[in-house]
Each structure stands twice: as C-alpha cells, then as structure tokens.
C-alpha cells in the first residue's frame, strides 16, 4: 500500500469555539481531501488571553489534524501572526511534514511562500473572497493587490471555485495556470428524502433562508417582499436560519412590517439541523447582493430543493431553469414574482434529479478526487 500524500491546509478562516461557522467551507474541503490524503490544518488567530507569544492547541476533527496557533498582539498583529505560524510549523513538521500546502485566501499565503523557498514545499492557492473591498483606501487597495500578485504568481497552480472567481482574479492582471474545482458539501448530511411535505404543515408552504444576517445577503429586500406577499396570500412561512451583526435590525424590521406571524428566526443551527429543516421546506430563497460561490445553494439542492436566487457571482453557474429561478439583485418586484411562482410551482421540479446532480458534482468523492489528482500532478513535476 502506497504512502498517503500529506497535505497541509493554511486558511485565513477556520471554525473555532466562538465562531463555529467561520471558514466552514475550508473544513468541508479538508474532509473531501481526507478521503484520499493525510490532511492537517495550520490556522493562526490572535488571542490576548494566552501567556506566551504563541500557543499551539491540537484537536482532531473528522479525522483531520487541526493545529490552532493562538498568538498575542505586540505592536503588529500580523507580524506576531507570521512569527507564531513559522515557529509553529517548525514544531509540527517533526510530526507532520507536508508534501504540499493548500492555501485558502491569499492573505494566508505569506507563510507558504516562505516555506516554499526555505523547504521546497510547493503550494497551491484557492481564493474565496474579494481581494479588495469598496471601503478600502487607495493605498490599502494598492498594497493588497501587490500582496495578491506576489502570492498568486508564486503558487504552483491556482484553484478557482468558479469561472466567476477566475475572471475576477484575472481582472487584477494576475496571471497563472489555474483550474476550477468547486466548493464541496457533505451529501451524507444533505440528501434528498422523498416524502409528502404536506405532513410538515397542512396549510403552509415553508420557505427557508440560510446565511449571515447582513445587508449583503439582501435581507432588506427579502423582508419587504414577504410583507407585500402577505397582503396577497397567507399560505407560507419564512424560516430564517443564521445570525449576524444586523440580526436585531431585521427582527425589528419584521415587527414594523407586521410579519412576525409568518417570519421565524431560528438562530445558528448545526449542519444536521439545517439539512433536516431543508428536507421539510419547499424551496430556498437567497437574495444576495454578492456571492463568490454560495455553498448554501448546493446544500439546499442536495436535499432536492429548487432555489430562488440572485444572478450574482457563481450562482448563475450553479442554478439553471431546471433547478430554480434567477433574478436581478436588489429588485424587490422580481423577488416577489419569483417567490410567488415558486410557491405555486415548487412541486413541478424534479427533486431527485436536482439532488443527484449535486451529489455527483459537489460531493466529497468528486471534489476530493479532483484535488488528489491535482496534488499528484504537481508533485510529479517537482
């Protein structure tokens, strides 16, 4: 039996005690890869409660070794992060010496760039988010673009989760070889179950929203659309799963719009709980103003749900007329029409076919095998 490849994942975000859903998509990648490789996570985060410059906390999650590197802030948090991460790698390499490093988000790429030159360990990079933000000042934007170019161009290969992300990165003048490997989900949790949804509620159809409660997710438009629809019909309930910095704002908005009787806030739920709620729902609504991918969409479709979503980011690459309805972002009237159509026609979608498509393209086996083949290809070229 051949020795398993050792893959070290260095992410910008990763789930931790006080933020269990932060970077959860990276953990999903790790679980997919762990079917073919030996996987470890090296994740650094500032923690003012520690006594030393840094501490390594080890944890095993889903057969994945996780090294949490907590560090202090002395003058510069980022410099402390870099020192802590480098010293931590020096320690863990005695037990886990990687064949290849997989970076998630370019700002986590300085350490892998350093290790590439010091230890000849190749790295690849997957970007998940915007390189710059609209509120960034001119100097900050330039600095971020320079850093991104340095990290992207030194990677052995770029892995984009969608065509949208590939085009977005190239718009900054960043050129490198790339391939597309989508985000992945656990289809042993998110699966289709064929039963009569009317047993869940004899009179009400259940719409589900899952995500962070922020303006970027289009919650303002969704709640206004629901309030207008309430004047026309009374056969639906909106279940909101998630939390966020604007949660209290939206709870107040629900009261002011007089829709408290049909909008239920459920807070943060585990993946298993979300999947169970999806299987009891009739369709997902996602009115985001911006998305780079949207794992929630493929999770919902894996349970057989059609989706009402905005045509932003990679969503238009995931959803077609056989899987849901795409509308323009920020358009309340289009959102109302799409929800109303779906309330009347959700049963006409082929739920089993939607679920099978997602499983074969976005499941752990499919995505894990793609990444494993990429790692082997890169290492064979070294």
Question: SSE layout and pairings?
Answer:
Layout: E1 6-11, H1 24-33, E2 38-46, E3 54-61, E4 64-71, H2 77-92, E5 100-104, H3 110-119, E6 123-127, H4 138-154, E7 157-160, H5 163-170, E8 178-180, E9 205-210, H6 219-230, E10 236-241, H7 247-256, E11 263-267, H8 271-279, E12 283-286, H9 295-302, E13 307-310, H10 315-318, E14 324-327, H11 332-345, H12 351-362, H13 364-381
Parallel strand pairs: 1-2, 1-5, 2-4, 5-6, 6-7, 7-8, 9-10, 9-12, 10-11, 12-13, 13-14
Antiparallel strand pairs: 3-4
Short description:
By secondary structure, the protein is of the alpha/beta class. It has 2 domains: 198 residues, Rossmann fold, CATH 3.40.50.2000; 165 residues, Rossmann fold (3-Layer(aba) Sandwich). The strands form 2 sheets. An 8-stranded mixed sheet has the order 3-4-2-1-5-6-7-8, with helices on both faces. A 6-stranded parallel sheet has the order 11-10-9-12-13-14, with helices on both faces.
Describe what you observe in this structure:
It is a single chain. With 382 residues, this protein is of the alpha/beta class. The chain has 2 domains: 198 residues, Glycogen Phosphorylase B (Rossmann fold), CATH 3.40.50; 165 residues, Glycogen Phosphorylase B (Rossmann fold, 3-Layer(aba) Sandwich), CATH 3.40.50. 39% of the residues lie in helices and 20% in strands. The chain is built from 13 helices and 14 strands. An 8-stranded mixed β-sheet has the order 3-4-2-1-5-6-7-8, with helices on both faces. A 6-stranded parallel β-sheet has the order 11-10-9-12-13-14, with helices on both faces. Helix 1 crosses helix 13. The longest helix is centred in the C-terminal third of the chain and has 18 residues. The model has no long low-confidence stretch (mean pLDDT 92).
């Amino acid at each position: 039996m051949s020795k398993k490849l050792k893959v070290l994942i260095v992410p910008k975000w990763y789930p931790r005690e006080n933020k269990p859903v932060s970077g959860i998509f990276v953990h999903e990648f790790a679980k997919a890869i762990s079917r073919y490789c030996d996987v470890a996570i090296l994740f650094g985060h500032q923690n003012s409660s520690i006594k030393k410059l840094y501490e390594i906390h080890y944890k095993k999650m889903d057969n994945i070794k996780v090294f949490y590197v907590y560090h202090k802030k002395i003058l510069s948090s980022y410099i402390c992060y870099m020192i802590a991460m480098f010293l931590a790698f020096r320690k863990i390499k005695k037990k886990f010496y990687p064949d290849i490093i997989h970076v998630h988000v370019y700002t986590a790429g300085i350490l892998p760039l350093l290790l590439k030159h010091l230890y000849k360990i190749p790295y690849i990079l997957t970007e998940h988010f915007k390189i710059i933000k609209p509120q960034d000042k001119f100097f900050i934007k330039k600095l971020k673009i320079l850093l991104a170019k340095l990290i992207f161009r030194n990677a052995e290969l770029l892995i984009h989760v969608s065509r949208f992300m590939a085009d977005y990165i190239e718009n900054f003048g960043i050129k490198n070889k790339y391939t597309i490997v989508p985000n992945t989900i656990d289809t042993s949790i998110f699966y289709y179950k064929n039963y009569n949804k009317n047993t869940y509620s004899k009179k009400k159809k259940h719409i589900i929203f899952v995500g962070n409660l922020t303006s970027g997710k289009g919650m303002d438009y969704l709640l206004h659309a629901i309030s207008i629809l309430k004047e026309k019909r009374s056969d639906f309930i909106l279940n909101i799963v998630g939390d966020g910095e604007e949660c209290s704002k939206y709870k107040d908005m629900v009261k002011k719009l007089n829709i408290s009787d049909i909008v239920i806030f459920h807070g943060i739920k585990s993946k298993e709980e979300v999947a169970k709620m999806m299987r009891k729902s009739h369709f997902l609504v996602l009115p985001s103003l911006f998305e780079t991918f949207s794992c929630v969409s493929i999770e919902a479709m894996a349970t057989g749900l059609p989706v009402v979503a905005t045509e932003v980011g990679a969503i238009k690459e995931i959803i077609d007329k056989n899987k849901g309805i795409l509308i323009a972002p920020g358009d309340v009237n289009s959102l109302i029409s799409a929800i109303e159509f779906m309330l009347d026609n959700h049963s006409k979608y082929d739920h089993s076919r939607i679920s099978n498509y997602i499983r074969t393209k976005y499941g752990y086996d499919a995505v894990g095998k793609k990444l494993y083949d990429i790692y082997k290809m890169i290492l064979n070229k070294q």
